[in-house]
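Notes, p. 3: input format for complexes.
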Amino acid sequence: MKKCNNCNIMIGGNTDTCPLCQNMLSGEASPDNWPSPRRLRVKAFAYKLQLFIVLALTTIALSLDFLLDLNNGKHYSLLLALWLILFEMDLSGNMKRPFVVSRTVSISTFHLCILLLVTGWFLGFLPVSAYIITPSLLCASLAANLVFTMTDTTENALVYLLGNILLVIIAYAVLKLKYPEPGLLWTICLMLGFVAIIGTVIFKGRKVSDEIQKRMNF
Ligand SMILES: [Zn+2]
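Output follows (218 residues plus zinc ion):
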């Protein structure tokens, strides 16, 4: 800690002058107690700068695409805009709230699935997106959330695991309505969802119903 010889007080952190009398401090600096306002300002500025660049580029791309119609009716700028908007949503979500790994994994996976489905539809590889990439990503996210739920004591991961299971069941049901055979990967995904339900009920028991009631405000 540093010392002000004028006021005879000890001052934590790495400041050069006394906050009371502005005298120069003596002694060794100690680690800062809080992130410095300057660092927070730099972080906020960096965030705003990238947001400005992204929105400016998106606007230019949309304008060129729609006003000049360079791609004969295929509006690729909409695809670009969707990718950038979801990227910005993930970025601001992670910056504004305390980092929760299960939330980041779940939401990013969900966004990535949407993006790959839309991109697949746009560029002509929808079957690959729908039958291979999406169920694989959802399987990975389910497995990760199952591990997070088993190791997490705050029950944050449990909510995302339940959401993930619900998403898989809904996606499977929608696919099944349209196509009688949704494919091996979707079937594995659904089975993993059921296994995850069994696992959470056995290991987390009452916490599952408590958490659902809490979230639904019963
Ligand atoms: Zn002082």
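The chain has a mean pLDDT of 86.
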